[in-house]
Amino acid sequence: MSIRWAFFIFNWARFCEIKPALKAACESGNFDELEIADEVLEELDEETEPASAANAIILELCGEGEPVYFEAGLAELIRGLRRYPRGEDVSETLGSMISAQPNVDEWFQAGDGLAGILKPDETVTLAKAFAAFRRKYQPPDPPKGLAAITRRFAPSESPIDHLSDLMELVDRAVTAEQGLGVLCEQ
Fold first, then answer.
1. Which is higher by pLDDT, 32 or 64?
2. Which residues lie closer than 8 Å to 167 by C-beta, 6 or more apart?
3. pLDDT score for 86
């Protein structure tokens, strides 16, 4: 089973605004009085767990912009970033996002869904780490010969191909004074 990751801009202020009402609805299991989430609730079936419903609502209301997808190999990419000069901080933050569920409260934790959130100030810290990393980073040379031919038959793109897209997304989030979220789909 493959895991797909999607990083996106996360509207932290909106999350803080809806969090109290959403948490109460999740704890009671009654989302009927939540006017903010009618469209999302219509798409869910009646058997959806409250945490999964809350997670879906948060994603819909707080996720912004076009995400950056990683089809496979994200964990290996994050481990590999440690080998680059100034890659440790980037690797630590991204690794935490996909494994430690930062800022994801227990009441909306779900297997599939929002896996980690960075607050705006944490996103600024990641952007600074990426800026330091970029000063020394040299993308690997494209494969040649047999490696280039075999890569054309690979079922998904290499995660390194999306690293610059992720750096740009983090920069856009900082410019917009927003956070960063990551979605996990299994």
1. 64
2. 130, 134
3. 86
